[in-house]
Amino acid sequence: MEGECCTSTSTRNAENKRKSREQHHHQQQGKPYRGIRMRKWGKWVAEIREPNKRSRIWLGSYTTPIAAARAYDTAVFYLRGPSARLNFPELIFQDGDLRDMSAASIRKKATEVGARVDALEVALHASESESNSNSNSNSARLSEKPDLNKYPNPESSDEDQ
């Protein structure tokens, strides 16, 4: 009987750990990248804790989560080196040796990268939405049904379109 009690307790502990991992996974689905969070009004912010300190380095506020994640990646790379866990390990740009850098210089590099990525992402989304609105207006014009009881107007011929 004693063996059964211990087995059921260990089984319960394993099940609780599994449930805890599942809950953690579901919480992470709302936060797409490491080191970032979303403000109530929709901006994405990035910050990182300094090693062996309680203070944090503010990395900025961005329009897109990718820009905030890239800023975080830059900072964590300079703080922890090549072994750091990155959101985009294939995109890190190493521009020299990893020497001890101040929090201010890490913040400056991270915000430069984040701002550059944010500008590119916003421009990309703007061009996508512009092309979508153009295709929607073209398809709306094509989907209009002609009045078959009306004589064609030579000014609105197919050659003009």
From TrEMBL:
Compositional bias (Polar residues) at which positions?
Answer: 1-13
Alphabetic keyword roster = DNA-binding, Ethylene signaling pathway, Nucleus, Transcription, Transcription regulation
Do you know which Pfam families this protein is assigned to?
A: AP2
- Work out whether the entry's keyword set contains Nucleus: yes
AP2/ERF domain ranges (all copies): 32-89
Q: Where is the composition biased (Basic residues)?
A: 18-33
PANTHER family hit by this protein: ETHYLENE-RESPONSIVE TRANSCRIPTION FACTOR RAP2-1-RELATED
> Which purpose does this protein serve, as stated in its record?
Probably acts as a transcriptional activator. Binds to the GCC-box pathogenesis-related promoter element. May be involved in the regulation of gene expression by stress factors and by components of stress signal transduction pathways.
What name does this protein carry? AP2/ERF domain-containing protein
Q: To which species is this protein native?
A: Xanthoceras sorbifolium
- Provide the organism lineage as a comma list: Eukaryota, Viridiplantae, Streptophyta, Embryophyta, Tracheophyta
